[in-house]
C-alpha cells in the first residue's frame, strides 16, 4: 500500500503543475487569496453524516441529533411491459438536477419519466454535504449577515478567475433564493433553521444546509414529491442515444435496462440531459487533462461518465471549459473518496507537510489548497488535531465508520504523543513541534479575542484556530481527487442546449454538472447544489412549455 501511495503522489504532483496552466489558475499567491472554508457556529449543531455512513449501517435510518436520516434504498431491476413509451418530457439522470427538472416539468402540466442508470437515485447529490449557497437567505436575515446578489456574483467571478459565462451567473444569482424557497415550501426539503456554512471563496456565510447534513436527505424529499406528481422513475435504465426527427428536433431517448431490454422513450415536448459530469470517465478527462489518468481517484458516483455530453455532441451540441476539472483537497489516498473526518480543519486543525511545516491556508479555495498539497515533496497533506478538536467536531459520532476505515487503510493514526504520530508517517518531528508550538500561540491569541486572520501571522486563515495540546493526538494523510468537471454543454438562460453555431437545438435542454461555463475554472464550495437546483427547475419548466 505504501508503494502504491508513493506512485500516486508522483502522478498527482504532475497534476498540480499542469493544472496551473490548464485551469488558468490565478497568479495571486495562496496566502493572499481570500474566501476561506469555515463552519459558522450556531445554537443548532451541525449533524453532518455522509451517505456512505448511512449505507454502512444495517438500520433503515440513523439518528443524528433531532433529525432521523432516511436511507435511500437500492432498487431491483424491473422488466418493462412496453419497450416503447411516450411522455411529454424525458429526463436523463435522477440526481439533484434531474429531480428538480422532473418536479418542475410535472408542476407545469407535463407527464415525465426520469431515467437513471444506477440502482439508486441521487447521483453525486446524495453524497454531498447538502449545502446550497443562497445570497440574502432567511438564515442570514436572522443572523444579521449582510449579503447581496451582486456580492455573490463577484465571489463567483473571482472564484472562477473571470472565466464564468456572465449570463448564466446572472440567472443563478437571480433565481437562487426563489428556488431555495421553492425547495423548502413546495418540494418539502427541510433546512436547518439557524445554521449555515461559510465555504471557501465566499465573502460571507451564505450556504443553507439540508437537515441531516447529507444530500441524500434532499433527494428523499425530491423523490417523494416527484412520485406525488406522477413522475415515472426508472432505475437500472441507461440512456444510449438521443432521437431526432427530420426537422432536427429532439423527440426522445434510446435506452437499455440492466435486464437487456432495448427501450424507446418518446418525448412530445422535450428531453432534459441531467446526467452529471465526466469525472468518472478516465478516457474523457485525459482527453482534456492527460495528467488526470487512472492513477488519480475520483469522489464521484459511477454514473458520472460524460454520456450525456457524448450523446448531445452527436447532434452537434457545443461544449465549453472542458479542461477545467476541479480536484477536492481532502480525500482518501487509498480510494479517492472525500474524507468527512478531515472536516476537523473547520474546528481548528492545521495541516502540515512531510517536513513538518504548514504550507497553505487550510481553509482557502479548493483549487488553491489542492494545488498546494500536490506541490509538497511527497504530494500529501497531513491534518493534525487533538482529542479536544475530535470531540468538538463530533467526529466519532458522525463519522466513526470512516474514521475506522482510515485507520485500517493506514492513512490516519491515533497516538499518545505527537512525536509518535509523526513517526508513523515519517514526518520531521523537530519542525512539526516548532510548527505546532507556533500555531498554539496563534490559537491562544484567537481564544483571547484576536481576529483569526490577525492571530494567524503565517497564513492569515479566516477560520477558527484551536490549540493542539490535549492527547491523544491524531494525524491524517490526505490527497486531492477529481471532484467536479466545470466543463460541459453550452446552454442559454432557459436551459436550451446550443449547437456549435450558437443556435438552440430544438427539444433539447440540460442542467447540472453536464453544463459548462457557469463556474468558470473553479467551482466554489456549496455552489453545485445551487446550480443544479436553479437550472434543473428552469430546464424542466422550459421543456414542459415547449410546443
Proportion of beta-strand residues: 15-25%
Share of helix among residues?
25-40%
Largest beta-sheet characterization: 8 strands, mixed
Shape descriptor: elongated
Estimate the mean pLDDT confidence.
87
Number of continuous helical runs: 16
Structural class: alpha+beta
Q: Return Rg in Å.
A: 23 Å
* N→C terminal distance: 58 Å
| Strands, total number | 21
**For this entry, what is the oligomeric state of its chains?**
single chain
Residue ranges: pLDDT <50 for 5 or more in a row? 1-36, 38-65
Q: Can you describe this structure?
A:
The chain has 547 residues and is of the alpha+beta class. 33% of the residues lie in helices and 21% in strands. It contains 16 helices and 21 strands. The strands form 5 sheets. Strands 4, 5, 9, 10, 11, 12, 20 and 21 form an 8-stranded mixed beta sheet that branches. Strand 7 and strand 8 form a beta hairpin. Helix 5 packs across helix 6 (166-187) and helix 6 (166-187) packs across helix 16. It is elongated, with a radius of gyration of 23 Å. Mean pLDDT is 87; it is low at 1-36 and 38-65.
Topology:
Blueprint: H1 2-22, E1 38-39, H2 51-55, E2 61-64, E3 67-70, E4 84-92, H3 96-107, E5 112-115, E6 131-133, H4 138-143, H5 149-159, H6 166-187, E7 191-198, E8 207-210, H7 216-228, E9 232-234, E10 237-244, E11 250-257, E12 262-273, H8 282-288, H9 307-313, E13 319-320, E14 325-331, E15 351-352, H10 366-374, E16 381-386, H11 387-392, H12 395-408, E17 412-415, H13 418-425, H14 429-447, H15 452-455, E18 473-485, E19 488-489, E20 496-498, E21 504-510, H16 527-544
Parallel strand pairs: 4-5, 4-12, 5-9, 12-21
Antiparallel strand pairs: 1-7, 2-3, 6-8, 7-8, 10-11, 11-12, 13-19, 14-18, 15-16, 16-18, 17-18, 20-21
Amino acid at each position: 500500500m505504501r508503494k502504491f501511495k508513493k506512485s500516486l503522489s508522483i502522478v498527482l504532483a504532475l497534476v498540480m503543475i499542469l493544472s496551473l496552466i490548464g485551469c488558468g489558475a490565478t497568479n495571486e499567491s495562496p496566502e493572499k487569496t481570500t474566501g476561506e472554508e469555515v463552519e459558522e457556529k450556531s445554537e443548532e449543531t451541525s449533524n453532518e453524516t455522509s451517505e456512505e455512513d448511512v449505507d454502512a449501517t444495517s438500520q433503515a435510518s440513523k439518528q443524528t441529533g433531532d433529525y432521523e436520516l432516511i436511507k435511500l434504498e437500492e432498487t431491483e431491476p424491473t422488466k418493462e411491459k412496453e419497450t416503447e413509451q411516450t411522455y411529454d418530457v424525458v429526463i436523463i439522470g435522477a440526481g439533484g438536477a434531474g429531480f428538480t427538472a422532473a418536479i418542475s416539468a410535472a408542476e407545469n402540466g407535463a407527464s415525465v419519466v426520469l431515467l437513471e442508470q444506477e440502482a439508486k437515485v441521487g447521483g453525486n447529490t446524495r453524497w454531498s454535504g447538502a449545502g446550497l449557497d443562497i445570497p440574502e437567505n432567511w438564515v442570514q436575515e436572522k443572523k444579521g449577515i449582510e449579503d447581496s446578489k451582486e456580492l455573490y456574483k463577484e465571489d463567483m467571478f473571482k472564484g472562477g478567475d473571470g472565466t464564468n459565462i456572465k449570463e448564466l451567473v446572472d440567472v443563478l444569482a437571480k433565481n437562487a433564493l426563489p428556488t431555495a424557497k421553492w425547495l423548502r415550501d413546495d418540494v418539502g426539503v427541510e433546512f436547518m433553521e439557524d445554521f449555515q456554512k461559510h465555504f471557501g471563496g465566499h465573502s460571507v456565510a451564505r450556504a443553507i444546509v439540508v437537515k441531516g447534513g447529507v444530500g441524500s436527505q434532499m433527494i428523499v424529499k425530491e423523490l417523494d414529491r416527484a412520485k406525488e406528481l406522477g413522475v415515472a422513475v426508472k432505475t437500472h435504465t441507461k440512456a444510449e442515444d438521443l432521437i431526432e426527427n427530420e426537422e432536427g428536433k429532439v423527440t426522445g431517448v434510446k435506452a437499455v435496462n440492466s435486464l437487456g431490454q432495448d427501450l424507446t422513450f418518446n418525448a412530445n415536448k422535450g428531453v432534459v440531459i441531467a446526467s452529471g459530469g465526466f469525472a468518472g470517465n478516465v478516457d474523457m478527462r485525459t482527453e482534456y487533462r492527460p495528467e488526470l489518468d487512472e492513477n488519480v481517484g475520483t469522489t464521484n458516483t459511477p454514473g458520472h461518465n460524460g454520456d450525456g455530453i457524448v450523446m448531445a455532441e452527436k447532434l452537434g451540441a457545443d461544449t465549453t471549459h472542458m479542461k477545467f476539472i476541479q480536484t477536492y483537497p481532502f480525500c482518501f489516498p487509498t480510494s479517492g473518496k472525500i474524507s468527512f473526518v478531515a472536516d476537523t480543519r473547520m474546528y481548528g486543525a492545521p495541516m502540515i507537510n512531510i517536513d513538518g511545516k504548514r504550507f497553505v491556508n487550510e481553509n482557502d479555495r479548493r483549487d488553491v489548497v489542492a494545488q498546494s498539497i500536490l506541490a509538497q515533496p511527497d504530494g500529501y497533506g497531513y491534518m493534525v488535531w487533538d482529542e479536544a478538536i475530535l470531540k468538538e467536531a463530533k467526529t466519532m459520532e458522525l463519522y466513526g465508520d470512516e474514521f475506522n476505515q482510515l485507520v485500517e487503510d493506514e492513512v490516519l493514526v491515533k497516538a499518545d504523543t505527537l512525536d509518535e504520530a509523526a513517526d508513523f508517517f515519517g514526518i520531521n518531528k523537530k519542525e512539526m513541534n516548532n510548527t505546532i508550538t507556533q500555531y498554539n500561540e496563534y490559537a491562544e491569541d484567537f481564544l483571547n479575542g484576536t481576529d483569526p486572520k490577525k492571530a494567524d501571522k503565517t497564513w492569515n486563515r479566516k477560520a477558527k484556530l484551536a490549540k493542539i495540546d490535549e492527547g491523544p493526538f491524531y494525524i491524517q494523510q490526505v490527497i486531492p481527487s477529481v471532484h467536479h468537471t466545470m466543463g460541459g454543454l453550452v446552454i442559454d438562460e432557459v436551459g436550451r442546449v446550443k449547437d456549435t453555431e450558437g443556435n438552440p437545438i430544438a427539444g433539447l435542454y440540460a442542467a447540472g454538472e453536464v453544463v459548462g461555463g457557469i463556474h468558470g475554472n473553479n467551482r466554489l464550495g456549496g455552489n453545485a447544489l445551487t446550480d443544479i437546483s436553479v437550472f434543473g427547475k428552469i430546464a424542466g419548466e422550459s421543456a414542459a412549455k415547449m410546443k
